[in-house]
């Protein structure tokens, strides 16, 4: 009973409580809901603010990635790794993840980048009769000393060099993956490989080593670029020129092979070009030269962890041995009319603005008076009112011209000058032959800088190679950059472009070192150099640094030509033998182009005993070859130049070159050039003018006719004595009296004379695929 009462009481209490709760809910539900919401929201904010931060994981920004291979590059890495600190990394913070575009595989690679604080240089050598062994240990001591002189306070330091005999080391340990070498603080260090290799045409350890590299490269279980994590490598070969006089005959052939295999195994980490030396001759000199380049690179590597500027590992076609020959860079490629304004447009623009702009601009310039400019072209238009705007830049950075030129490989200096590495410069660096100027005049192509202080010109020649984007004008109407700026800028950019060639296969260490000293300047790129108002000051700067000057002008500026001071060789382009033909081929902007042309010839005649004057003829079949021999002979008779250079036009095959009316059919074959020069020489002889066929460079379809003034005791002397030229210039000044004969050099080499082809016998002719051409 008591239980029943207790249960009734409990039930009644629950009923009351429920009733009260329901009532309360109905009365206060809105404030209850709102209060609960705010309390929960406040709690959430509190938890967020007091929470401990985790690492923020960010996907790599591929576009920020330096495309050059990094020190710890793993070419087969394909996974994004989360950051994790390692003992070897420089900082204690999380490692940075970077994206990498791996060009050879055409897939995006993600890789980690870390740099060690120490670098181990390993000097590998092989030796059969102990010469290289001795050289290697002496070299290691010298290199140790040189490396200890490098300031490594802000970079990686060097461990003492290890010298390793390839016959004794376990090749697997060093040439499948890089060895794990511990540094002073116990962490793993980066490695840099150097090789000193004699060549043997008998079976030696070199063959074992080469076979090992071959197998590693082709082993499908191993990455094709298994040694990519090393910082870089370079090879020096020792050989014997007595037994193996040229590279074709096997001089240092195994060093060359090792250099190539290492390029493959490291993913093209050639840090410095292959050096070679004759163990019975020049090897000490060559080794010192190579070594100094290697030390420079090692210094850079210690500071930056990378091999610096260059095409190393970029996959750029320039690296390839199959490199397609670039278009001929010596001003002979066909014209691409493109965006050159037409004549009527130019006339609409009017020239008076240019004239007055020029006047103001010249006033602004301090320093020596500029060369006079032409104001004669457009008659009445010169009476127009003065403009109010300031002179403009010839090639502004944002202009399409600038973009087009830089795309074609030019570096634009200031606002109107340009510099570009010519294909012969690259070819000579790789021992594949120099341009005809080496054969004719002794110019080393790898020491030649091709530049112009004026990208503008007053002609629109059909065979011009400037692809139609260059500014044209009859007068200088732009801002004038000071010659100091141009000189410093072109040199800097030239050297930059040479340095880029450092990792290119086949570049010779010796030539690379020589190329770092410009000896010649070809003022013949695009445009008209003589147009530049301070051309004489610019020439003086070249000469002060003993850089010879070959200046090519277009025979349209007689006043500037007359005001020109000494140059080493003065060219005038003779593109046709009569008025109509000249109009058709040069498409000159000057109305009085023929009169100007004639006046230039008179200037040349008057200067022939002061300047080495040259006619340059560019033969374009269908334009200026047929039936023009007598006409050209008339011009030679008028100006009596020291030399006549005849060259077949080169075709660049752009869509708009066809628009200029030219096709491959306009390019003469070499035998046609030969026929033409033979006929011209006969005509000159017939007139008793004293000229003869002196030299040829069949490789570039070029022949040289010279005045008998340059024939001594029956031998042609077309080569220039550059030292003598500078001595005369220093002694007698830029306007001084001295004759071309006074700086005539030694006899033209036999191989360059007419009938002998003219290919430099030190080099190897290659076809467009880089294969050696026999004979
Ligand atoms: C049997 C023999 C074959 C050689 N073959 C070549 C060769 O093919 N190309 C080359 O440039 N030098 C060749 N040499 C020259 C050596 O490479 C050169 O003398 C070198 O300095 C030897 O170095 P080592 O004393 O360290 O072995 C050869 C020498 C010998 C004795
Ligand atoms: S002279 Fe100089 S720029 Fe001209 S083709 Fe020869 S190397 Fe090139």
Layout of secondary structure:
Elements: H1 2-50, E1 97-102, E2 107-112, E3 118-125, H2 131-148, E4 157-158, E5 162-165, H3 171-175, E6 190-198, H4 205-218, E7 232-239, H5 253-265, E8 275-278, H6 283-304, H7 343-349, H8 352-364, H9 400-407, E9 411-413, E10 417-420, H10 423-429, H11 436-441, E11 448-452, H12 483-499, H13 509-515, E12 520-523, H14 535-544, E13 548-553, H15 558-563, E14 569-573, H16 579-586, H17 593-607, E15 613-619, H18 629-639, E16 643-648, H19 655-659, H20 670-686, E17 691-697, E18 702-707, E19 711-712, E20 715-716, H21 722-732
Parallel strand pairs: 3-4, 3-5, 3-6, 6-7, 7-8, 11-12, 12-13, 13-14, 14-15, 15-16
Antiparallel strand pairs: 1-2, 9-10, 10-11, 16-18, 17-18, 19-20
The chain binds flavin mononucleotide (FMN) and iron/sulfur cluster.
Explained architecture:
One of its GO terms (biological process) is wybutosine biosynthetic process. It is a single chain. This protein has 775 residues and is α/β, with parallel strands linked by helices. It is 35% helix and 13% strand. The chain has 21 helices and 20 strands. The strands form 4 sheets. Strands 9-10-11-12-13-14-15-16-18-17 form a 10-stranded mixed β-sheet. Strands 3, 4, 5, 6, 7 and 8 form a 6-stranded parallel β-sheet that branches. Iron/sulfur cluster is lined by residues 330, 422, 424-425, 435, 437, 443, 445, 448, 450, 522.
């Amino acid at each position: 009973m008591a239980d029943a009462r207790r249960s009734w009481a409990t039930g009644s209490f629950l009923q009351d409580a429920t009733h009260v709760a329901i009532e309360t809910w109905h009365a206060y539900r809105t404030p209850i809901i709102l209060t609960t919401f705010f309390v929960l929201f406040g709690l959430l904010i509190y938890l967020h603010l007091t929470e401990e931060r985790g690492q923020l994981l960010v996907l790599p920004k591929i576009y920020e990635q330096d495309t050059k291979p990094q020190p710890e590059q793993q070419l087969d890495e394909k996974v994004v790794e989360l950051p994790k600190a390692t003992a070897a990394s420089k900082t204690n913070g999380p490692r940075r993840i970077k994206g990498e575009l791996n060009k050879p595989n055409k897939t995006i690679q993600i890789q980690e980048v870390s740099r060690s604080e120490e670098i181990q240089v390993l000097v590998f050598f092989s030796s059969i009769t102990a010469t290289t062994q001795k050289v290697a240990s002496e070299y290691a001591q010298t290199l140790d000393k040189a490396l200890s002189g490098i300031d490594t306070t802000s970079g990686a330091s060097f461990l003492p060099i290890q010298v390793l005999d390839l016959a004794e080391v376990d090749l697997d340990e060093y040439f499948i993956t890089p060895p794990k070498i511990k540094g002073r603080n116990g962490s793993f260090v980066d490695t840099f490989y150097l090789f000193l290799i004699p060549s043997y045409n008998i079976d030696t350890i070199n063959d074992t080593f080469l076979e090992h590299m071959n197998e590693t490269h082709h082993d499908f279980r191993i990455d094709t670029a298994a040694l990519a994590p090393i910082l870089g490598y370079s090879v020096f070969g020792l050989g014997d020129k007595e037994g193996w006089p040229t590279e074709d005959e096997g001089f240092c052939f195994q060093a060359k092979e090792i250099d190539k295999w290492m390029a493959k195994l490291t993913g093209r980490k050639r840090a410095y070009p292959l050096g070679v030396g004759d163990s019975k001759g020049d090897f000490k000199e060559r080794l010192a030269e190579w070594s100094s380049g290697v030390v420079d690179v090692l210094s850079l590597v210690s500071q930056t962890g990378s091999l610096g500027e260059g095409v190393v590992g970029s996959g750029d076609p320039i690296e390839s041995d199959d490199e397609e020959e670039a278009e001929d860079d010596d001003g002979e490629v066909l014209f691409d009319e493109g965006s050159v304004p037409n004549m009527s447009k130019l006339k609409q623009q009017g020239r008076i603005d240019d004239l007055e702009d020029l006047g103001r601009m010249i006033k602004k310039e301090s320093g020596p008076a500029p060369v006079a400019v032409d104001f004669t072209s457009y008659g009445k238009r010169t009476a127009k009112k003065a403009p109010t705007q300031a002179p403009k830049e010839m090639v502004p950075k944002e202009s399409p011209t600038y973009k087009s030129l830089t795309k074609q490989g030019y570096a634009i200096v200031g606002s109107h000058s340009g510099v570009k590495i010519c294909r012969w410069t690259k070819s000579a660096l790789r021992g594949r032959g120099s341009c005809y100027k080496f054969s004719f005049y002794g110019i080393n192509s790898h020491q030649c800088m091709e530049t112009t202080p004026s990208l503008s010109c007053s002609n629109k020649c059909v065979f011009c190679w400037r692809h139609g984007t260059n500014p044209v004008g009859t007068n200088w109407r732009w801002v004038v950059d000071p010659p100091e700026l141009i000189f410093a800028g072109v040199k800097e950019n030239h050297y930059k472009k040479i340095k880029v060639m450092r990792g290119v296969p086949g570049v010779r260490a010796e030539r690379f070192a020589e190329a770092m000293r410009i000896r010649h300047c070809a003022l013949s790129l695009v445009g008209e150099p003589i147009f530049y108002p301070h051309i004489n000051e610019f020439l003086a700067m070249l000469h002060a640094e003993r850089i010879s000057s070959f200046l090519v002008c277009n025979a349209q500026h007689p006043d500037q030509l007359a005001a020109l001071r000494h140059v080493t060789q003065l060219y005038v382009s003779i593109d046709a033998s009569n008025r109509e033909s000249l109009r058709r081929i040069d498409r000159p902007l000057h109305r009085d182009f023929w009169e100007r042309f004639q006046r230039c010839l008179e200037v040349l005649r008057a200067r022939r005993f002061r300047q080495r004057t040259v006619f340059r003829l560019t033969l374009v079949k269908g334009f200026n070859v047929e039936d023009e021999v007598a006409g050209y002979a008339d011009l030679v008779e008028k100006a009596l130049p020291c030399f006549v250079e005849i060259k077949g036009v080169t075709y660049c095959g752009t869509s708009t070159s066809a628009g200029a009316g030219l096709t491959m059919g306009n390019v003469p074959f070499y035998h046609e050039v030969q026929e033409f020069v033979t006929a011209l020489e006969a005509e000159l002889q017939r007139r008793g003018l004293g000229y003869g066929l002196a030299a040829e460079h069949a490789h570039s379809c070029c022949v040289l006719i010279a005045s008998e003034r340059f024939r001594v005791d029956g031998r042609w002397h077309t080569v220039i004595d550059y030292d003598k030229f500078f001595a005369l210039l220093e002694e007698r000044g830029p306007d001084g009296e001295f004759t071309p004969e006074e700086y005539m050099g030694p006899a033209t080499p036999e191989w360059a004379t007419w009938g002998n082809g003219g290919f430099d016998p030190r080099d190897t002719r290659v076809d467009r695929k880089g294969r050696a051409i026999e004979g």
